Amino acid sequence: MSRAALPAALLLLLQLLVLLGALRRAGAAAGHSAEDAPHSHERGPGQSHWSYEDRQEWASRYPDCGGTMQSPIGIDTAETVFSPQLRPIQLAGYSLPSKETLKLKNNGHTVVLELPESLAITSGYAQQYRAVQLHLHWGSLAGPGSEHTVNNHRFPAEIHVVHYNTKYDNIEEAMVHPDGLAVLGAFLQVGPRENPYYRQILEHLYKIQGEDEEVFVPGFNIAGLLPANLNLYFRYNGSLTTPPCYQTVKWTVFNQTVQLSQDQMSVLVTTLRGDDNSPLQNNFRELQKLHGRHVLASFQTTLTWVKELPPPGGDSSSEAGAEKHTSSFQAGDVLAVLFGVLFAITALAFLLYVHKHRNQNTRLDSPTKSKVIYTAATTDENAV
Predict the structure, then answer these.
(1) C-beta neighbour count of 213 within 10 angstroms
(2) How far, in Å, CA of 215 to CA of 264, rounded?
(3) Are 24 and 97 contained in the same domain?
(4) pLDDT-derived band of residue 350, with 50, 70 and 90 as boundaries?
(5) For residue 131, which of 10, 101, 119, 264 is within the disulfide window of CB 3.0 to 4.6 Å?
(6) What are φ and ψ of residue 296, in 5° steps?
């Protein structure tokens, strides 16, 4: 390589760096989206009786249930918008001593564990939120019952931890304001061993089989009910999934699942009874339309593990088939690969030049390049 080749190679490298910087800035501007501003709310007409059997009538008695920001939704990872401004969820006060007792109740619709206000979300939202209660949604022995779905897959069950904005005095005041509520949601799967955290709830269900029955249970680490990784999640603006369906919830749905044993899942879906003394099962609401809402993601979803649903007529009570590995490169990935190839060619030419002129005792400092590793986002299972 001639001496004239070195400036030309360096000039090419400089041009590539400028081009890559411009492309990254453009991609960030296109990929970032602020959370949807919640619409104005309407108060429900009160706490009259409702059931999952009359879901289609909810809107006639609770106007918000017919709104355009309802939950749950089906999350399509290919349609989510990566938002680097979504910070990891951080919790405070979630580890409770056993001497602190908590009320566990069958309210006829689900099992509810009341939580002290010392539990809080301290990071991941623009404001701080205090915990109020957690509850579960499930299906039956014949099929899954999570409320949200991911890529058309419905999980066996789902946990919701309800919080209210600390700028308000209590949840009753907060729930009618656009920024009033924050709910943490996680999917429950069947795994190979018992979950010690869920045992703190499930071992007491036989004591509250009937509607309005309650029992006090010892405190434990509530954070153990959620995934180990709180950094990867989806975020959207939605509603309560039961009447009065107030559209005031900022939802966080974690990408990592939590595992229970098969026996524990069976206890969850078969123990409790509803208001008419029938088995309390399939207590989940049907999916609601997005109506133009964006679903944000705290991570890049260009590579995703998707659970395959069993074929029609298959055994829906078993684990849902093998995992299917799907990938889709975005424009940014292609540009990154192209830049890497061009950079490698330039670097090779530069090294050849240095080697050729080493006998001229010319001291050249070889530039260093940090190695970038792109890690695919996966729907991991949190085995306890």
Answers:
(1) 15
(2) 19
(3) no
(4) low
(5) 119
(6) -90, 155
Return the axis-axis angle of helices 5-31 and 331-356, rounded to nearest 10°. 160
For the annotated catalytic residues, the residue numbers are 109
Q: CB neighbours (10 Å) of residue 340? A: 12
Residue 221 has pLDDT above 80, yes or no: yes
- Euclidean distance between the first and the last CA atom of the chain, given in angstroms as a whole number: 59
Say what the pTM is: 0.69
9 lies in which domain range? Answer: 1-31+329-384
Q: Are 128 and 120 in contact (CB under 8 A)?
A: yes
Are residues 19 and 46 both part of a single domain?
Answer: no
Q: In whole angstroms, what separates CA 159 from the centre of its chain?
A: 11
Q: One-letter amino acid identity for 290?
A: L
> Is residue 318's pLDDT more than 70?
no
Query: What is the chain's percent helix, strand, coil content, to nearest 5?
Result: 25, 25, 50
* Residue whose token pair is 């989206």: 33
Residues 6 or more apart in contact with residue 222 via CB below 8 angstroms: 94, 95, 96, 115, 119, 131, 134, 161
Q: Are residues 291 and 371 in the same domain?
A: no
181-204: per-residue pLDDT in tens?
A: 999 999 999 999 999 999 999 999
Across the chain, the runs of DSSP E, i.e. the strands, are 74-75, 81-82, 90-92, 101-106, 111-114, 120-123, 129-138, 149-150, 153-154, 157-165, 181-190, 214-218, 233-238, 249-254, 257-260, 296-297, 303-307, 323-327, 381-382
Same domain, 254 and 343: no
CA angle 43, 117, 125 (to 5 degrees): 70
Q: Give the residue carrying structure tokens 């939590």.
A: 258
How many CA within 13 A on the CB side of residue 115?
A: 29
